[in-house]
Request: fold
Amino acid sequence: MASKKKAAKTDKMSGKKRVYYKKVVYDGGEFEVGDDVYVKRREDANSDDEIPELEECRVCFKAGKAVMVECDDCLGGFHLKCLKPPLKVVPEGDWICGFCEARKLGREVQLPRPPPGKKLARTLRDKLLSSDLWAAHIESIWKEADDSYWFRGQWYTIPEETSAGRQPHNLRRELYQTNDFADIEMESIIRHCYVMNPKEYAKAHDEGDDIFMCEYEYDIQWHSFKRLADIDNGDEEGDDSDIDEDWKSSKDAESDTDEDVEYEEEKVKNLQSRASSAHELAANSRKGKFFGLQKIGTKRIPEHVRCHKQTELEKAKAALVLAKLPKSLPCRNKEMEEISAFVKGAICDNQCLGRCLYIHGVPGTGKTMSVLAVMRNLKSEVDAGSIRPYCFVDVNGLKLASPENIYRVIYEALTGHRVSWKKALHLLNERFSEGKRNGKEDDRPCILLIDELDLLVTRNQSVLYNILDWPTKPHSKLIVIGIANTMDLPEKLLPRISSRIDAFEKQAIEFASRKVAAISGDARRALEICRRAAEIADYHIKKLSSNHNPAPEGKGLVGMSAVEAAIHEMFQAPHIQVMRSCSKLSKIFLAAMVYELYKTGMAETSFEKLAMTVSCICTSNAEAFPGWDILLKVGCMLGESRIILCEPGARHSLQKLQLNFPSDDVSFALKDSKEIPWLAKYL
Amino acid sequence: MGIENLAEKAQILIRSRLCSPNFIFKPLSDSSDSNYSKLKFIISSSIMEACNNSILLLGPRGSGKVAVLELVLSDLLEEYPDTITVIRLNGLLHSEDNSALKEIARQLCMEHHLLFSKMASFDDNSQFMIAMLRECGLAHKTVIFTLDEFDLFAQGKQRLLYSLLDAMQTVTSQAVVVGVSCRLDADQLLEKRVRSRFSHRKLLFLPPSKEDVQRLLEHILSLPMDSSLACDYAAEFNEKLQSILADKRFKEIISNYLNSNSTTNHLLRFLFIAISNMELKSGFLSLENFKAALSSIQRHPKQECIKDCSILELYILVCMKRLEVREQNSYNFSSVMKEYKSVHDSFPTSDYYAQNVCLRAFEHLLQRELICFTDNRGHSQSIEFRQVKLVVSYAELQEGLKSPFF
Reply:
């Protein structure tokens, strides 16, 4: 075994200890932490069989260099020229070979037999998918004391080996990541394979035969599936992945002790996990982490999430979800530049004096989002090495149990220790105002982002004072960014919304954003209106197609009517509709209140006066007076839905009443009631 | 099988129908503008398309908000087993943020068979909830929060609503928050930061129209022809029912009853009494049953209270009324006693009661809430010297005095 290590390691480590590596060249192949590899299943697996690098054509059984196309169903390879009829180019999209097509139609299929004397060679991919091989993800690589190389692998599994079995929506090349780990000798590695997430997989064309797709994690203990978390923000991290690379390789140069520590930590973790299996820990009491979350996965992956072909409207709705942060903030460029200039100026300053920044604006105008975007950009710059590292603490005022708790949260974020808030205040004071620091970690500048700053106001304002006072101290190295909302009306919502969607008519978006800008200027609301409008349009189309024949395609645009309905729903109080449809006595009651208001000119009236008015109205219109007690109940019902404001019903005739809406609204609602036409006289 | 036996069975069947919201609201849910199908569309689209949503169900009490919601939830639980977690909170029980978050954590733990700790702090629970939302999102599971009496959650700093709605727009989860409230201005109560994060979908529940009531009555009261009940009995029952429903007097009773409150729940309560009044001997419903139900449900508690008063108590009430008519707005027991004496002097009768007897009668009136103290201050003072006021109005008092005794 000719092996050489790439990372320069010293000989003094060859004693008893394991030596960890980032990258190892073993048996001619270069293996790195994070790679995926094929692993032999048994020691005696006929490894002597020559493993074909290239797949053979299913028709002519020659590997050859000619272009081959792969069937999406049986994964067999075919030379373009061997097909009947021959193809000129590799077809776009899914392609299914003639044999599979015939089999689907229910015909008996005779596959071409290999020429005598030649076995159909199976590729590694074939072996893996028929569970004759394993695949694993390398977590760490080390050299044992006896000079043998080992790695810790996280197993992949094929759909057939899960409890749910292969499901109809599984792709042929799909694997699941498991939470099962094992220490494996490097000896048993065959060669690399490439497991990709769905986005990469969709882009992959020519990567060869050893690519697989992995979207889910499979829990071997609970037999459940869960999506891999990093897929969702994969596209964001994709941009600075090469920067990550630099960081990794530079880490190799660091001292060995560092890695020993890592090893110790791992050991501790193992101990912890063992302890947790012995005594089950409560899920919600967080001592560093939550226990038992792995139980949550689904038993089966629901079919609708995999093979759901989205319509244009559904795509628009998905794009409008508030959780989706847009890639760019079209109308906040100026502000973002200012923020990043401020932060950079504060960090890069040699003395690093403390500074404060206060950002304000009405809710939903993108304050927090701009700051977070700036911080993301800065982080990538730190990774690239152009800015000194700093620590970033993010606190939300509304999520604190009490304003004083902020000290505890800050201290925990900085050091990872949990102490009471008084102790934390003391320690933070020491650190920021007296400049006492214990360790080089602490020497970094610290950026403190406080969202909803106005909630930290206490009676003597000590919390706000402390936090805004620290940056003024000479050695604090603290930068505070406070966010709160006050009256400040922004406009220009239009570009931000239309940057997200294309299923809307042009005027419809303009209408929605103008409406919102006129009322509150809240971007969240504008987005919600558009989403609701898309929902309404979708609802109508789906109902139509379920009732009649499928609706004509291409008519799936959100029009003005849908947007208007959404705006109506959001801003219109539903009281007029309720007044129109409420019971007869309630209508008379309301009419009497309006009458009383006109007569006396006073907004407030008592139940006694009102009841007299009602009885007058009833007798003069030949209507039976229902009695005081029933009338009281009617009044309380109206009070419950806040159409009128009233005192508790126990006060009976002393109860005070007042209309909650303008009397014109009541008149408008009741004027043309068919049931009691005479009511209009009193309005 | 005797007719009584059959009638008892029919009675049990109809009563069980009245008590199951599923039966009542199912037939109203077919059409595309019904709240049922709208609500179901919103929730199921957030299951299918993995997005977050928040909805408010508004409408007067008894209009079937929770019933329709439960109907939708039970249908969805059947349609997508294992993927839905329903967290139920009630404003009357959990309006305090700390206890509400604890309850959410508890129910999440229960649903996913995790161990729950009572000791966890507010922070722990809120971070646990966010972690759970993320994990559930990754596992394609939907969490539905139903907040009954939504207006009561909108008190104080609204930390719960803020952390719920904020989590829903930062974490890639699939969660639906359904608020149920009888206050039409429930969304106006939200603090501006919370309101900005709320999706503002509103569904309005209105009382049924006249035609709907007619259909509902027929749907509930008519017996099925293909059940264990004898076929000819059911046919006869339905025939009699049809004649009652068509009767003008019956329509009058119903409209008289629904005049005060036309919600579904109110109607059901009336029908329950009517069904319970059904005579088992004859075995069929009659108009009298409904009449009796109407008179037993439309009570006038204050009026009856006055009628039940003793003569001395009525004396006191009348005296108080006389004082109030004379615009003497602040008076207490002693001044009432003075008035009593003067009344008695001008219209002498054989029975004049001593002051301590009158005080006892006065206390009775206080307990029955026919009179009350004007303010809550002065608890230390004895009853005689605290200011009082009439709770019933003059008209009611006059009505009460018309009883056959006098």
